[in-house]
Amino acid sequence: MNWGYKILFVFIAFAAMISYMVIRSFQSNFELVENDYYKSELVYQKIIDGTGRANALSHLPEIIQSGKEISLQMPEEMKDKLLSGSILFYCAYDSKKDKKILLSTDKNGIQVLTHVLTPGNYTIKIDWNKEGKNYYSEKKVTIL
């Protein structure tokens, strides 16, 4: 085999490699953190203020996982109070796993979540309102 065929073989192999990489790059799924991130950034000061209020409480909301149940325990200051808000289970690598649940605690400040969540790593974002004041807390958790 002479050197002309060797150069042709190298060019063909290079073109095949580039074609393979282009096809693979079009098949990759690149998810954004949020679809409407600009609107979320405009209200980010609400999250900063809510985090400051939540950090001033006796303790942050606790997440207790036992079996397939997940319990949310609110701080002492939130017992016997009318709370409104939401709990977002945010999965950074797969938006199909995200779940948003309305906050509905009992008189002891406990909410038991029996929703089926697929196993994975989640950031639980708790956003609640008590007597006109917003609170916000995040916690990373692994669902088994």
Keywords:
single chain; 144 residues; alpha+beta; four-stranded antiparallel sheet; three-stranded antiparallel sheet; elongated
How is this fold's topology laid out?
Elements: H1 3-27, H2 37-42, H3 44-55, E1 62-66, E2 69-73, E3 83-90, E4 99-102, E5 110-113, E6 120-130, E7 133-143
Antiparallel strand pairs: 1-2, 2-5, 3-4, 3-6, 6-7
Structure notes:
- By secondary structure, the chain is α+β, with helices and mostly antiparallel strands.
- Helix content is 30%, strand content 33%.
- The protein contains 3 helices and 7 strands, in the order αααβββββββ.
- The chain has helices spanning 3-27, 37-42, 44-55; strands at 62-66, 69-73, 83-90, 99-102, 110-113, 120-130, 133-143.
- It has a 4-stranded antiparallel sheet. A 3-stranded antiparallel sheet has the order 1-2-5, with no helix packed on it.
- Strand 6 and strand 7 (133-143) form a beta hairpin.
- The chain is elongated and about 85 Å long.
- The model has no long low-confidence stretch (mean pLDDT 87).
Gyration radius, rounded: 24 Å
Helix content estimate: 25-40%
Uncertain residue ranges: none
Average pLDDT score: 87
Separation of the first and last Cα atoms: 59 Å
Number of helices: 3
Strand pairing plus helix content: what structural class? alpha+beta
Task: Count the E strands.
Answer: 7
Strand order of the largest sheet: 4-3-6-7
Main beta sheet, described? 4 strands, antiparallel
What fraction of the residues are assigned to beta strands by DSSP? 25-35%
What is the global morphology? Answer: elongated
